[in-house]
Amino acid sequence: MSSVNVLLPQQATILDITEETPDIKTLRVVGKEGLPFDFMPGQCAMLSIPPVGEAIFSITSSPTCRECLEFSIKDVGKVSSALHSVVPGQQIGIRGPYGNGFPVDEMKGKDLLFIGGGIGLAPLRSLIGYCFAHREDYGKIDIVYGARSPADLIRKSEVQESWAEEPNTDVHLTVDAEFPGWDKNVGFVPTYVSDLGFKPENKIAITCGPPIMIKFVLQALEKLNFTPDQVITTLEMRMKCGVGKCGRCNLGPVYVCKDGPVFTLEELNALPAEY
Amino acid sequence: MAERNLDSVKKIREAVSQDLLGGRISQVLGWEKGHYWWQSRPLFARSEADLEKLTWDSFCVINLSRYLLEELKDHEKVGVLVKGCDARAFNRLLQDNMVKREQVILYGLPCPGMLDYNRLCEEAGAVPDGIVENNGTVVLKTDGGEKEVQREDIMLDKCRECVYPDPAAYDQMLLSPQGEREAAERFKPVEELEELPADERFAYWEKELSRCLRCYACRQACPFCSCRECFVEQENPRWQGRAYQPSENFMFHLVRAYHGTGRCIDCGECERSCPVDIPLQELNRKLIKDINELYGDYEAGLDAEAEPPLLTYRPDDPAAFSEK
Amino acid sequence: MKKIIAREKLPELWKSLSELGPLFLPVQEGPVVLFQPWQEGAETNLDTTNTAVPPKDLFLPREETYMQYRCKGKELEVIPAEEVKPAVLFGVHPCDLYAVEMLDKVYMEQDPPDELYKKRRENTTIVALSCASPDPFCFCNDFDVNPAEAPGTDVMAQLKNGSVLLEAKTDKGKALLEQAGDLLEDGSGEEFARREVKTADFNLKLDGLPEDLKNRFEDPVWDELFKSCLGCGVCTYVCPTCYCFDVEDFGHEAGGERFRCWDSCMYGHFTEMAGGHNPRPGRKERVRQRFMHKLRYYPETFGQIACVGCGRCLRSCPVNLDIVQAIQALGGETVEQR
Question: Hey, is the C-beta of C239 within 8 angstroms of any chain B C-beta?
Fold first, then answer.
């Protein structure tokens, strides 16, 4: 049994920074020797930048990427804003991994339907990369990804080029309104999911995005006859410790940081809707 | 059991039930008995059955006006039972434009002063089984017998020092007025503190405030703390640190006190609410005293029309800072 | 090992024990009694009922700096705080130790253990004092708290006719009594008096309450119960089983520290996310969260209601909204009472 204070961060260094959209940057982060820790898709890490503080972010790189961890961070709060001003070579604090991660074993042999909106692609991307790396374990992969405008889509070239070229994989992009030069779908993500008419047989749907999108995606999936155990989502709540003690992300008898953030819709339905 | 003044309770119930059941208001804020005879807790009455629980006794200390901030979001018009301090609190909220006068019916209850549970126990030498109130005296009943004490001696400090027990604002006065009380020596502790050298004053407050848990009960109970967002919660910049350090304790309590300058109605709810008994009224009274000395006597909340001294400018206002 | 000491000799005992590390015991601080480190001339009060604030502070301090940081150019250096020093907690009542047992489950038994808490627990020697006379707010009878026995204590003590009888319950307790040496007299002939403390008995019907609450998240009770709540944090801070905390940095760009401190689910900012979304936006949601955590969520995980009947919320809530009122409103009282 180690006797290390789990709240202590370790040093990590920023390798480089990609500007994804006007308010989203992707940071590539490396520990003292390679990855700071092993993890599974869907897990999170606490990033800290003193004296501003700590906040929790989902890891967007796949565990099969051994060079670094990647975080796609939207500038919405104090810590995320501070992380937007870091430079390559700068050290930050990191601790983790936290949470349960996606049930990659239970998903084996199934077709997968990923539904992401905006920054919500971040946790999905880790799983998508993992599934591509273990391509033979999974069936058909559909990825529906949308944002307000083409400029708000993250990992654009990866999504449109690399992912679309993977075997037995279809990528469906959509934006909320018409934009010059945009030749893909126009419309909200939930509507697009309905229009695409996915069949629930032997399929798992995994969705992440803004709460309002998730709400309507869940309705759309229900109409397509997906059962609650076939739908997986990941929750976002305020967290301070990441280890199920500090109380912020307490949702009924679970702590989202520890028992989540990944839940099936069946599990979520049994919890208070306070997220 | 605390003996209730049954006539008064009946009178109050009749008055408010007319308005509630007649549909002029949709809720009455009053008091009901809590677990113990020495506790009366807030009652939010919306039906005749609720009104059965309404009480008026010597433990209705909780200031109800403060609840208007929330209740008027859900109700067009409500009734509130107001003691002297509750009415001044109402005027305070009115002056801050936090409530509208026409949304509220005030039922005035001249207040005899509320009793202090700790004093009752001290005087009785045990937790009394109950009390009987006579004119000016109270009989404390214990296993060991009865003891008659002066009512004044077992009142809450804040009530002993109250000058205006009669509601300054009301639509109906339900009971007979108490009349203005003799100006108590409420500034005496402040004067004693003023006598001390600065470092001793600092040490005094550092020690008193060291007990602060930062539970913000003082703020939440306070009728002048009606800001929709308090500086304590502001994130950018973060004025109030979360650490339990003397500097953070001073930051919170001094900024809060200054925000109350000329606005504190001296109801003492802050000090009563404090779980570790920090003498917060001394801070507020220092500022009340300063305002009185600098701008002439002013009693916040007494007259909703009177301009608070720090919200007005007169060419002959003292300018102590610039003159020094 | 039983020892006895005359009450007037206690200051000598305390002086001796305080050589082991800070000795926390009930001290009269102006109008309230708090657990404070003993120092020469301290106005101790062993006859008090419950202290205004529970002793959870010793294990989960109000504020605890656990690292320093230094930034130089692009570099960040993290320096863990120094090791926790031994301490003694003297005169704690059984109910408060029943509560510590509940905190232990969260902080030590549930994976991963919290090393900060664990070290403080392990480094603290506890002398519990059996409870002689409850105050009217105590209702531990509703929770089967034995006023004469304290779970997990190292030494059990009892006030007895001008003396204090002490019995070591653990090796740590033995070591503590040995430290006192000749100050203590042999107490092997002495017996602990049986204590039967009659507290306020609200006849709370607690069996089955956690189960019953499973389907009552949307119960109309919540629409009414929260109304008097002022939204302060008194109940959580005086509660011996509340354990939420916050983590903050203090300092500037070049260096400073990171600490954790008490926080409260009754505050709006507690769950407010960057961007403004708040899953528990109002007093209703927060009051429900607090009581549901005590009465339903904690029991579901740990098999017991997170309350010991210490009565502090009954005494300290400025508007008399306490857990008894909540339990009663939720129907957790006997049929006769209703």
Answer: no
Domains and CATH numbers, chain A: 10-98 (2.40.30.10), 111-234 (3.40.50.80)
Sole residue written with tokens 């956690």: C210
Question: For an interface test with A, which of C66, C219, C258, C302 has the most A Cβ atoms less than 10 Å from its Cβ?
Answer: C258
Q: Is residue C68 part of a domain?
A: no
Same domain, C170 and C220: no
- C306/C182 same-domain check: no
pLDDT, tens digit (0-9, with 9 covering 90-100), for A125-175? 999 999 999 999 999 999 999 999 999 999 988 998 899 999 999 999 999
Residue numbers in C near A91 (CB within 8 A): 74-76
Inform me whether the C-beta atom of residue B244 falls under 8 Å from chain C C-beta atoms: yes
C274 in contact with A, Cβ within 8 Å: yes
Residues of B in contact with C34 (CB under 8 A): 211, 276
CB atoms < 10 A from the CB of B204, how many? Answer: 14
**From the list C230, C236, C238, which residue is nearest B221 (CB)?**
C230
Q: Read off the pLDDT of each residue in C152-171 and give the average, rounded to a whole number.
A: 94
Instruction: Name the residue of chain C whose CA is nearest to B222's CA.
Output: C230
C270 to chain A, closest Cα gap in Å: 6
Residue C79: CB atoms within 10 A of its CB come to 12
A199, two tokens: 């069949």
Alpha-helix runs per DSSP H in chain C: 10-17, 94-104, 115-122, 171-180, 209-212, 221-225, 234-238, 283-292, 298-302, 312-316, 323-329
Are the C-beta atoms of B254 and B260 separated by less than 8 Å? no
B18 C-beta neighbours (distance < 10 Å), count: 12
> What is the total residue count of chain A?
275
Residue at token pair 């301070």: A240
User: Which residues, numbered 283 to 322 in chain C, qualify as contacts with chain B under a Cβ-Cβ cut-off of 8 Å?
Assistant: 283, 314, 316, 318-322
**CA distance linking residue A242 with residue A119, whole number of Å:** 21
Q: Are A252 and A215 in contact (CB under 8 A)?
A: no
* Cα C152 to Cα C59: distance, rounded to the nearest angstrom: 14
In a domain, C73, yes or no: no
The verdict on C228 touching B (C-beta cutoff 8 Å) is yes
A51 vs C119, C256, C292: nearest CB = C256
Cα separation, A51 vs A56, in Å, equals: 16
C219 touches chain A (CB under 8 A): no
Q: 3-class SS at B36?
A: coil
Q: Does any domain span residue C194?
A: no
User: Is C140 in the same domain as C213?
Assistant: no
Looking at the fold, whether C15 and C155 belong to one and the same domain comes out as: yes
Domain boundaries, chain B: 6-116+157-173, 117-152, 188-323
In this prediction the pTM is 0.94
Contacts of B217 in chain C (CB under 8 A): 230, 232-234, 318
Return the residue of B nearest to C324 by Cα: B35
Count of domains for chain C: 2
Q: Predicted ipTM?
A: 0.93
Residues 6+ apart with CB under 8 A from B67: B29, B42, B44, B80, C227, C228
Is the pLDDT at C275 greater than 80, yes or no? Answer: yes
C35 touches chain B (CB under 8 A): no
Record: contact B233-C268, CB cut-off 8 A: yes
Per-residue pLDDT of C77-136, as tens digits, reads 999 998 888 999 999 999 999 999 999 999 999 999 999 999 999 999 999 999 888 889
Q: Are residues C222 and C159 in the same domain?
A: no
Domain range enclosing C318: 209-329
DSSP class per residue in B48-104:
HHHHHTEE-STT--S--GGGHHHHHHH-S-EEEEE-HHHHHHHHHHHHTTSS-GGGE
Indicate yes or no: CB of B277 within 8 angstroms of CB of C314. Answer: no
- Residue stretches of chain A with pLDDT short of 50: 1-2
Q: Tell me the C-alpha distance between A195 and A144, whole Å.
A: 11
